[in-house]
Amino acid sequence: MPTVNIKKDLLFEALGTTYSDDEFGDLCLSYGLELDEVTSEKKMVIKEQCESKSEGVSDDIIYRIDIPANRYDLLCLEGLVDALLVFQKKLEVPRFKSLQAKKPIQLIVKPNTKQIRPYVVAAVLRDITFNPDRYASFIDLQDKLHQNICRKRSLVAIGTHDLDTIQGPFIYDALSPEDIKFKALNQTEVHNAAELMEIYSTHAQLKQYLSIIKESSVYPVITDNIGTVLSMPPIINGYHSRITLNTKNVFIECTATDLKKANVVLDTILCMFSKYCSNKYTAEKCQIVYPDGLVKHYPEFKYRKEIVNRKKVNHYLGISENLGNLSSALSSMCLKSSVIKESDAVAVEIPPTRHDVIHACDLYEDVAIAYGYNNIPKTLPTTATIGSQLPINSLTDKLRNEIAYCGFNEVLTFSLCSKDDVSTKLNKPFNSECTVRISNPKTLEFQVARTNLLSGLLKTTSANKKMPLPMKLFEVTDVVLKDSNSEVGARNERRVCALYYGKTPGFEIIHGLMDRLMQVLGIAYSAESDSTYQIKATNDETYFPGRCAQIIYRGKVIGLMGVLHPEVITAYELNMPCSAFEINIEPFL
């Protein structure tokens, strides 16, 4: 959940009312927000252990407000103020318009951009008036959007430029790093893109974005018609077209790998700051010309209508309100509404600031917020139900207790592991047919979903090998296996695994534990009957030759038991013999 920092004095000035901290906290809570902390810039700097840097920092009181992750319109002072004023019925819901110029500014997209960031949207804020606080808010909103919906610039990167310093039509291209030369923001010299990537490799903020394009043979770049570089997204803007307090016309471009999110970002910035334009709540369209001849105009500022049925709203929320009250509640959430009496419904207009409204249930939630959750009457459920434990969990708990009674310690291991843990370290080839792989693992330790519990117990033993011997560990939980017949392509399988690690293999202890579990389950041993369990000698790469057995129940193999192979023990950096068993317990249900 993102947090915005807003100066108390600026906030109250914009709201036209002064509140105590408690009163403002209550107002936030009634709108579905939370006043997380009341602090100051100096306290924030000191809290980050930078007391030496706190000199000269203002003591202005700061409100830190938690914002829902999908409410991008509340990530700045401007959006928050408008929302609260509309909520309090002190302001009409703004109506946003996109204006078409006689000769719209063009942004021409070149074919090479398909290799790296294929989409771009753009617009202009005309006759805008900045002051230091508005300027700071303008920059801060871009940072907040970059960290949230833009996914740290990987999906969308925002560039803002002083339109009066550059000349259209603009060109969006992708060139080799050596062919991109410009003076970047906060730089004193002209560098090519390769040199800038090296310079920013140690930059505190920018180094996290370099990997987005670093391995590409071409880098995206936006220039004007005389070759002046505006930006090299998603890394840095050019110094020449920088925004200042004196900027009157702002050219905004958003390059992206996701066109929908680029539209959301562009709409959000324009809607929040068009209030400072001489023609309030308006933005000028730009023309995007794609290589195939397709021409698009942005911003779209789409308004759409949804119909909300009164009976459904009342039923889902447990309230009883008439159409007029429901319409008023929705309008107070910046969703202009009108009553449709003949249909017993409310027509709701979704503005371009509310991209979070996707389904009717989102509107029901807004009605609940405006109505007040605390005002919804408490009622008993209309149906009586009796909760009970799932059979598999009931069996798991019983087995867990029995194994613990036998002197084994339970461990909880990660459900993700490395490919080596389920293959090489266990002397097995990697089985891609039954293993679920993670498409973008953040670390080599979490590449696949585990297909066994044994590797987790061995890693736990390795991490605790300095503990007194013998070590007796167990785990009862799920493994994940590929399954083409499953709706999601995979299924869980509940297993139990136990391990003995000491100066002797301890096979008799593991065997005894397995026999005890069968005794608790009421399953007798028989070498012939299919209704009982059996133990048959077998060979498996993970276990020592001649020291491994299959565990069979009702004619089906449910697991293995034996002394681990020395190579497996060595792979986990252990130096004592080890025995283990692992069985599937679902057949016992």
Structural class assignment: alpha+beta
| CATH architecture annotation of the largest domain | 3-Layer(bba) Sandwich
In helices, the fraction of residues equals 25-40%
At the third CATH level, what is the topology name of the largest domain?
Phenylalanyl-tRNA Synthetase, Chain B, domain 3
Q: What is the number of domains? A: 4
In the CATH scheme, the class of the largest domain would be: Alpha Beta
Total number of strands: 28
Domain B5: 301-378
Subunit structure: Tetramer of two alpha and two beta subunits.
Keywords: Aminoacyl-tRNA synthetase, ATP-binding, Cytoplasm, DNA-binding, Ligase, Magnesium, Metal-binding, Nucleotide-binding, Protein biosynthesis
Cofactor: Mg(2+)
Explain how this protein is built.
It comes from Cinara cedri. It catalyses: tRNA(Phe) + L-phenylalanine + ATP = L-phenylalanyl-tRNA(Phe) + AMP + diphosphate + H(+). The chain is an alpha+beta fold. The protein folds into four domains: 3-68, Phenylalanyl-tRNA Synthetase, Chain B, domain 1; 97-298, 3-Layer(bba) Sandwich (Phenylalanyl-tRNA Synthetase, Chain B, domain 3), CATH 3.50.40.10; 304-375, Phenylalanyl-tRNA Synthetase, Chain B, domain 1, CATH 3.30.56; 391-588, 2-Layer Sandwich (BirA Bifunctional Protein, domain 2), CATH 3.30.930. It is 25% helix and 27% strand. The two termini are 42 Å apart.
